[in-house]
Design goal:
The protein is mainly α. The chain has a 3-stranded antiparallel β-sheet. The longest helix is centred in the first third of the chain and has 22 residues. It starts with a helix and ends in a 24-residue tail after the last helix.
């Protein structure tokens, strides 16, 4: 599909005509199609912006919508609503998948990485709308596409491992876990990331994945079992022995 047709289609989906067309092009561009170009050529920067804006919008909307819910209930509902599973599902139903610009190295790989790409592009589109037209226009898109999914029961879905670990660590240690990228292997268009999760400077879990988010989620799941909060399929797991100082944590 030619670029002009993609732009027209996504503007129809968003219900907004972009004054700054480069924003929508970047929001649809997978990093594999932007190798060797400026960092703004792919959706990654807009995804970062959109992720924060989306979280703030949903938090405010839920706060107003459910005045009787406590902090924990609101948090679980927000987590479920902005989860990768939810965002990729919504983006897929909007037909966004066929509009994403993939590089040659990524073409022909089928569904591999499509879920994370859909999630990332949804967030990037929120960021692009905000940059081009402001909060209200971006919020209208979020209300139209995500609000129909809101039910009080949504927060009862399985809570992601990072959120489960966060709850345990804050309760028991009065601090939050931190995540650090430990390594990256493989070709640029299909890397494998390895992350560790730390509590008070100590490595408590390690995980790998095709995205940084996935590697962090797997590290959190590993920590939950190694710290004894959850039972692994093969029984208790030994804790990690190495220690990481606070410098370089992220």
């Amino acid at each position: 599909m030619k670029l002009r047709k993609r732009i027209k289609r996504i503007e129809e989906v968003l219900g907004h005509h972009f004054a700054e067309e480069h924003l929508i092009v970047s929001a649809l561009t997978h990093p594999s199609a932007a190798e060797g170009k400026a960092v703004s050529a792919s959706y990654e920067r807009l995804e970062f912006l959109g992720d924060s804006i989306l979280g703030a919008m949903i938090a405010a909307d839920l706060y107003d919508r459910y005045p009787a819910m406590d902090e924990g209930q609101l948090s679980m509902l927000k987590i479920a609503l902005v989860s990768g599973e939810m965002l990729s599902e919504v983006a897929g139903e909007l037909g966004i998948g066929e509009l994403i610009l993939f590089g040659e190295s990524e073409k022909g790989t089928g569904a591999r990485g499509m879920r994370s790409a859909l999630e990332n592009v949804y967030e990037a589109l929120v960021g692009a709308l905000y940059e081009d037209a402001g909060w209200d226009v971006a919020h209208e898109f979020v209300v139209r596409t995500l609000h129909p999914r809101i039910t009080p029961e949504l927060g009862l879905r399985v809570v992601p491992p990072k959120s489960r670990l966060q709850e345990h660590i804050q309760r028991d240690y009065r601090v939050g876990p931190t995540y650090k990228l430990e390594g990256e292997t493989g070709p640029a268009h299909s890397p494998t990331f390895t992350s560790v999760v730390l509590v008070e400077g100590r490595r408590v879990g390690r995980g790998s994945g095709s995205t940084k988010k996935e590697s962090q989620a797997n590290a959190a799941a590993d920590a939950l079992m190694r710290m004894g909060y959850e039972q692994g399929p093969d029984g208790p797991m030994e804790p990690l022995q190495d220690v990481e100082h606070s410098e370089g944590e992220a």
